[in-house]
Amino acid sequence: MKLWEKSTKVDHEIERFTIGRDQEMDLFLAKYDVLGSMAHITMLESIGLLTQEELPLLLEELKKIYQMVEDGQFVIEEGIEDVHSQVELILTRNLGDIGKKIHSGRSRNDQVLLDMKLFTRSAIREIYEAVEELFDVLLTQSEKYKSVLMPGYTHLQIAMPSSFGLWFGAYAESLTDDLQLLSSAFKVCNRNPLGSAAGYGSSFPLNRQMTTDLLGFDGLNYNVVYAQMGRGKMERTVAFALASIAGTIAKLAFDSCLFTSQNFNFIKLPAQFTTGSSIMPHKKNPDVFELTRAKCNKIQNLPQQISGIISNLPSGYFRDLQIIKEIFIPNFGELLDCLKMTAAMMSQIEVNTHLFDDDKYDLVFSVEEVNRRALAGTPFRDAYKEVGLEIEAGLFKPTKTVNHTHEGSIGNLCNDEIRKYNKSICQNFSFEKIDQAEKLLLGR
User: Fold this and answer.
1) Contact at 8 Å (CB) between 107 and 207?
2) Which of 34, 107, 227, 416 could in theory staple to 193 by disulfide, Cβ–Cβ 3.0 to 4.6 A?
3) Where are the alpha helices (DSSP H) in 193-269?
4) CA nearest 183: which of 431, 425, 434?
């Protein structure tokens, strides 16, 4: 069954090539296609394109299809082109000609636009929740180890004193900035394209504000041409946010791989988070961190992949856009997996609390000594030279204490302020509004 098929039969190889992985990707969109159809037909009844008797019949069948999806029983049958066709086929089988009416006033173009937006805002929510979980773990660890010093590095050379409190807290604040990007992407995503049809609107007197409200959107994509132009752009915008989160996690994973090595020995993973070697019995490899780094680096390429598909397209719909689903949809699950694994590992990491017992880190405290002398009245440049000459002569004896008091330093982490900043960003996501709209549609 093809919604567009008339008298000409499509060549099998052409059909295979043009459908590609679309059916596989459409299973991710199935329940959102049902929700969109429920909102659309409710609006159609309000403008007289469905009768008062037909609407409840269709809604009831759509609720059953939604439950099929929830139960993992929904399939796109052999010979059925996509999720839109499958939903319409089930309705027509069960209700006859009434099922054929649900397509009035829309095209598969705005159906897939809508499905992708509904899927994406739901997937963004899962990412948001996983980021928040990791954020809480990192801040908790920052507070727990705020007094435990560790060496800071520049150029991979020991540089100045840092602390595990700073290290954990840095990644918590980085995730908060990532959430800022994600909230902006969410706002771009959470606008309703339904009613734009094939990209030029409809002669039916559609009530687009009604479907906007029924689906819990923040607003409309008003211009119907722009609604179609937004396909690919929305995905790329969201991909930048995912890439930002992935960048933070990849850096954290790299640090962790480095810091668990015997040459550093800053942190230790529980044995269950490591893997062994087939010939070296002593090995405990941080494979989870390494795979996390690789997966997140791959996700950081996602915006460029989408840009490569859409950058030379004029306005209007083109089949090129279908390919975006294949590279966009799976990345949510992959990033979610990385976030959950990282949260689990960070919560159970063991910290070496005696790093500075080793004399090889003595020179980390040279800047502290320079600053002490400057505070006592020696000009900074003179104090710097004095300490430098002592180091060259092998006479430098460190005082292994630090007294950093300014905002964001070892002695003043500002974790409460970071948490407040995080909370202010979390308020940008209108998840409650979406929940209420979907519950009303589904009668729950």
Assistant:
1) no
2) 227
3) 208-214, 224-229, 233-260
4) 425
Model-level pTM greater than 0.90? yes
End-to-end CA distance of the chain: 32
The answer for residues whose C-beta is within 8 angstroms of residue 54's C-beta and 6 or more apart is 45, 98, 101
Is residue 99 within 8 Å of 55, Cβ to Cβ? no
Question: DSSP character for 203?
Answer: S
C-alpha–C-alpha distance, residues 135 and 342, integer Å: 11
pLDDT digits (tens, 9 = 90+) for 17-55: 666 676 778 999 999 999 999 999 999 999 999 999 999
User: In the predicted model, what is the mean pLDDT of residues 364-373?
Assistant: 95
Please report, for the chain, the start and end positions of each structural domain, with discontinuous segments joined by +.
12-104, 109-146+164-301+328-347+415-442
The pLDDT of residue 4 is above 50: no
| Residue partners of 214: CB distance under 8 A and separation at least 6 | 38, 39, 42, 43, 437, 440, 441
Q: Which residues contact 124 (CB under 8 A, 6 or more apart)?
A: 182, 185, 186, 189, 238, 241, 429
Kindly list the distances between the CA atom of residue 423 and the CA atoms of 17, 129, 182, 426, in Å, as whole numbers in the listed order. 47, 13, 14, 5
- For residue 418, the tally of other CB atoms under 10 A from its CB is 21
For domain 109-146+164-301+328-347+415-442, the CATH superfamily is Fumarase/aspartase (Central domain) (1.20.200.10)
Residues 166, 64: Cα–Cα separation, whole Å: 52
Helical H runs in 145-232? 164-189, 208-214, 224-229
pLDDT in tens, 63-98: 999 999 999 999 999 888 889 999 999 999 999 999
Q: What are phi and psi of 219, to 5 degrees?
A: -175, -170
